[in-house]
Model the fold of this input.
Amino acid sequence: MGRVEFVGVGKQYGDSGAGAVQDVNLTVEDGEFLVLLGPSGCGKSTLLKMVAGLEDVTSGEIYIDDRLVNYVKPGDRNVAMVFQSYALYPHMTVRENIGFPLKMHKLPKAEIDRRVTEAAEILGLRDLLDRRPEQLSGGQRQRVALGRSIVREPAVFLMDEPLSNLDAQLRVQTREEILKLHARLGTTTIYVTHDQIEAMTMGHRIVVMRSGVVQQVGKPQFVYDHPANTFVAAFLGNPRVNLQTGAIRLEADIARFEQGEVSFALGPALSAFARSAGDGAEVALGVRPEDISVEHAGSRKHEHDALVKLPATITLVEPVGSDLYVRATTGTMEWMARTEARLPVRTGDEVTLMIDLTHAHLFGEDGMNLEGAAG
Amino acid sequence: MGAEGRALARDPQPKPGRFGGKSLYTIAIYVILIVAVFISLLPFGYVVSTSFKSTMSLFSYPPDWLPENPTLDNYRNLLNRYPFWRWLFNSFVVAGSVTAIKLVVDSMAGYAFAKMRFPGRDALFLVVLMSLMVPFAALLIPTFIIIRELGMLNTYWGLILPGLASPIGVFMMRQFIESLPSDLENAARLDGCSEFQIYRRVILPLIKPGLVVLGVFTFMTQWTSYLWPLVVVTKPEMATLTVGVRSLTSTFTQDWGLNSAAAILSMLPTILVFIFLQRYFIAGSIAGALKE
Amino acid sequence: MQEQAVTQTTRPRALALSEEEHQRLQRRYQRRRSLTAYLFLLPGAIFFFAFLVIPILLLFFYTFNNGGIISEREWVGLANWRNVLRDDLVITAIKNTVVYCLMAIPAVFVISMVLALVLQQAARGGSAFRSLLYIPTLAPYVVAALLWQFVVHRDFGILNMILVEFGQEPRNWLGSPDLALRSITMLEVWRGVGFWTLLFLAGLIGLPKELYQAAAIDGANAWQRFRYLTIPLMRPTFFFAVVMATIWNLQLFDSVSILTNGGPQNSTVTVVWYIQQTTFAYTDKVGFGAALSFMLLLLILFLALIEIRLLRKR
Ligand SMILES: Nc1ncnc2c1ncn2[C@@H]1O[C@H](COP(=O)(O)OP(=O)(O)O)[C@@H](O)[C@H]1O
Ligand SMILES: [Mg+2]
Done:
């Protein structure tokens, strides 16, 4: 079991200033892998520490399996935490580190040995049991930290950026290991990260936070495809989403987007949302770089009513191997396109950008996705 | 800077002048050190030599460095005619007790100040800082009166208790413990430790270097303490080493050989302890303890 | 742009407990935690109160009384304070103590700093030298005093042997009023060098190495690095050292009591020596000693606070 519920949870450090976490309402289902995502300082760790009991809750209630835990000591909440710094006890061997929570909970010696051996087996630490943390590599330390949390068989795992101290390759590998572990144990996990790749690949659902406020909760792909606001749209996706500010011009059957000299039709879906905003409304148009390509001889010819063609000048070409990032300007608009690698374009080329608005979004003046307002 | 000097010396094509300068420099360094050590230890050499001299040969002039007929008479005298072992034992009891109690008490308080949140923490710590400035010597009279009222004159407790008030250990321990990452105690908290278990099983093992520094410092201070034992002890059998050794010198005669033997014997334990533990005395551990 | 959450703004359920109930529970939870902290402080606090706070209060009380150690205590009002301020020997004691500090502290700091710098440069054997230099500090004063007699003894002391060697008159280091305090100072410096060297060395080792490398690359010579890096960076260490050295040295007693007992001609009378004498040696002037003690307390607090002020500012 391990259902975590946040009811109007807020946290304020000190007596004044904005809350580090504000009015979080959220239910983490039993067995779920939930990722808290947001830039540094947005309150992810604070939220996690409140679940762990390492920080007091300033307002609201936190439940673990329907038990109000606001006033329960950390050790009695049946949660385990993996820290970014690993927080292994330097003076204990791997075996003692992993067995420590069991010892503190007064399990019999034989049972401790059994569970430590089992955890070491799962995590491939069997040969390292008698070493001290200082004799381990970063990845090994991380696995010991994982081991220390799984032996307790807690209701909830809390992980605070557990991979951010590892190098890129180990990070991918450990990511997979954590997922396997989760598949095997099925323990509810709340995982904090500022890395969108981790969030997208690991989370059943992700929670995007900013300045202590939850921006959006949902399945990773859904959040990516339907960002609630410009912040979420910009935070997810690499290169960043193209956000163009402009005005809506409503015509008989279609809406147009207008910025300075440049103006184009928005296609039927977006037009519907645009209509809800009204003629002349200030909006931001969000188009992901992968929905923009540069027209060339081999371009697929099939036109549709959500495709916009704009003449543009290339200002920057960045090959990243698998893709080619192209930056181009049209009037006052600047676009980033993510196109096929090896496309023969160069800085200064005059080209035609093909902008597919099928998955594009309009954001109102308040930054909110008009899709939400209309739907 | 030392590392840089060595790197230069290893330079494949050293400029001749520069290289010569560096060797001179190294020589100068060792000359200074040897002179300093010589001055530091010279009087000890004198005392060691005197402790083996017979009363007869003591006052030959000019004094000779190596006794002509080395004798153990002085040591025999000291151990047979005076309760030297008793003084040594007393000093061990007092210095050892103060050290043991202070290590526990100060590290507990240091942990509370460094890692716990409670109303009045900063104000209380300010009081601790202020009290660093209170000279013990100024409290001699009231402390004596308190100990007397407690009926502890000429007792071990009377020697020990006033030594426990000094707040410098609390200050040192707090600095040490504060430098430990909070994640560690948080991890322990989640692993089900009570605050006392965190202190006992996580904090204490990790501040061992700090405990050694505070321990040696406290032990040495107590071992060499003179004023308080002088005041609180009137019975010879409760004298500590310092007071006892001092009592060997009567107003009229000074038995140099005997005094020297006593000096050597009373310093031996501390020198051994210090040499054994001295590696802890550096490695930034003191720096860690003293930084603001 | 004002942004809000778009999903899950509705609470999964209403708060189960009222605001007041939460406040009550929160207080109880925090109180239990504070209580733990106070328990950790308790043992130290007991000693702190019994042997520091209460003595200070008691001391203040005794400055208005007389007797109390041998004879009965009696209230005398401000008489002790008046006597202390009028007593010539008090002036002498304060003067001697301050003069001693002004000689001893700079001397021991300069020597120790030089030795610390030198030790830091020593590629090999540094730790051995360090330990050997520390040995004088381990000597109890009774021992140090004895050692020092071998140094300053009129007939067979080392110093005089050296003087004679150079064709000079031997001097009466402890027996002449001009020299006695200086001899005491020499002893204290000799004994203190090991401790301060170790402290300064610890400070030096803690300095950031990168800065020195950067400065060396920028072409700063050794003196410039010392002047513009070491000195400013060592400030926290110096700060601590100056304040603590003042507090400790103003309590000069042991060596004076053993070597000269205040003489000759009161030239080595120090404040603590005078306190000890008036209360425990030949008279029962407890109130006088208490008032003098309280003056010492105020003097040290005053000087330490001035130093803290001065050193903090710059
Ligand atoms: N112990 C603390 N005291 C005061 N402010 C804090 C404390 N811990 C975190 N904060 C502040 O709360 C905000 C959220 O911090 P945190 O939860 O650590 O963010 P994240 O983990 O998302 O990077 C930050 O602005 C941070 O400065
Ligand atoms: Mg964080």
Summary: The first helix of chain C runs from residue 19 to 62.
